[in-house]
Amino acid sequence: MEGIEKVCQFLDEAQTYYLATVEGDQPRVRPFGTALLFEGKLYIQTGKIKPVSKQIAANPKVEICAFKGGTWLRLAGELVNDDRYEAKAAMLDKMPSLKAMYSADDDNTQVLYFKNATATFSSFTAAPEVITF
Ligand SMILES: Cc1cc2nc3c(=O)[nH]c(=O)nc-3n(C[C@H](O)[C@H](O)[C@H](O)COP(=O)(O)O)c2cc1C
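# flavin mononucleotide complex -> structure
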């Protein structure tokens, strides 16, 4: 398995991760659950009307933390907006529960992929594993 696939699988299995953004000098963090590998990139999903989206537009540097079975993942990087219909449709197809609130051609649905990303898997029992993509 490629490193980026391992990261996406971990986020899927953890089900919930926490996404931190920056607003001025104030960190903001909230639960997220969307993750998709599409065209070799790791995508997440949000709504353009949310404060989180506006924070990412102003400063694309974010960090994710997820925890599962004694291992935690920290993923730091920059998010890039992708307004293509096919990227949004792929996200909604993977996570059909989103279709109650979002569609690939509304004005709100937003998908973003990571660039300059560093993923670190840590535990109390093993050396950290670092993956970049
Ligand atoms: C388990 C869980 C998963 C969530 N996943 C997402 C998600 O993937 N994308 C999203 O936009 N909101 C998701 N939410 C909702 C956000 O946490 C919520 O809208 C939050 O207020 C957004 O942050 P903001 O208020 O700073 O914009 C999720 C909530 C929970 C409880």
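# post-check
Helices lie at 3-14, 51-58, 85-94.
The beta strands are 17-23, 26-32, 36-38, 41-47, 61-68, 71-82, 109-122, 129-132.
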